Automatic annotation (TrEMBL):
May be involved in transcriptional regulation. This is ZF(C2H2)-13 zinc finger protein. SUPFAM superfamilies: beta-beta-alpha zinc fingers (SSF57667). Keywords: DNA-binding, Isopeptide bond, Metal-binding, Nucleus, Repeat, Transcription, Transcription regulation, Ubl conjugation, Zinc, Zinc-finger. Pfam families: zf-C2H2, zf-C2H2_4, zf-C2H2_6. The gene is Znf235-003.
Length: 229
């Protein structure tokens, strides 16, 4: 009956959090003692709760019992399935309290919030450069390893990032997907479009460190630098 009354008579004496059942209190107490009685027989990792162990075991069995009824993609946890379903419904219940931008998962919201704080928690162990997203750090590490995992199946050229490969593939297809919203000229890559847009804005982001002269293209700056050498 406590479920209906919402009464919580069981008190944790350490943090004063209350629980409806003695079982919930006992499981909670493990967070204070750091006791992990539930052992994975495969990798020997230990867990405080049996439910956490059961979820962990799905990694070893590769079992994905939770299936999306729309696209039939499968997930290990029901929480992952619920987050996935928001992609289909386009619902974005998680809102940034700084800029009010909305997201379909709590994880995406947390990653976004870092852009407001300038926090960079992910550090490269080689050059100490810091990043605000784990994905950016992983991409950066390829610079040190010189690994290029993305390969063009036509000319076999390899790239650091999948986006670079996608841009490269347009060379073979001759398709121009990126259109300028000012003059409607089309380009094969987003990078070429960005460089073109500078011609409309008059922006000159490339500066000579010797004479301070500025240029709208990196190539023009390189030609100019030969004057000083």
């Amino acid at each position: 009956m406590l479920t209906h009354t919402k009464e919580k008579p069981h008190l944790c004496k350490l943090c004063e959090k209350r629980f409806q059942t003695i079982g919930n209190l006992q499981r909670h107490m493990l967070t204070h003692t750091n006791e992990r009685p539930h052992l994975c027989v495969v990798c020997k990792k230990r867990f405080t709760q049996l439910g956490s162990l059961r979820t962990h075991m799905l990694i070893h069995t590769n079992e994905r019992p939770h299936q999306c009824h729309i696209c039939e993609k499968r997930f290990r946890q029901n929480g992952d399935l619920k987050a996935h379903l928001l992609i289909h419904t386009k619902e974005k219940p998680y809102r940034c309290d700084v800029c009010e931008k909305r997201f379909n998962s709590d994880g995406n919201l947390r990653k976004h919030k870092i852009t407001h704080t300038d926090e960079k928690p992910y550090q490269c162990v080689v050059c100490q450069k810091r990043f605000n997203r784990r994905g950016n750090l992983k991409t950066h590490m390829l610079v040190h390893t010189n690994e290029r995992p993305h390969q063009c199946h036509i000319c076999k050229k390899r790239f650091f990032q999948n986006e670079e490969l996608k841009d490269h593939m347009l060379i073979h297809s001759k398709e121009k997907l990126y259109g300028c919203d000012v003059c409607e000229k089309k380009f094969k890559s987003n990078g070429n479009l960005r460089r073109h847009k500078i011609t409309h804005t008059g922006e000159k982001p490339y500066r000579c460190v010797v004479c301070e002269k500025r240029f709208n293209r990196r190539e023009n700056l390189k030609v100019h630098m030969s004057i000083h050498t």
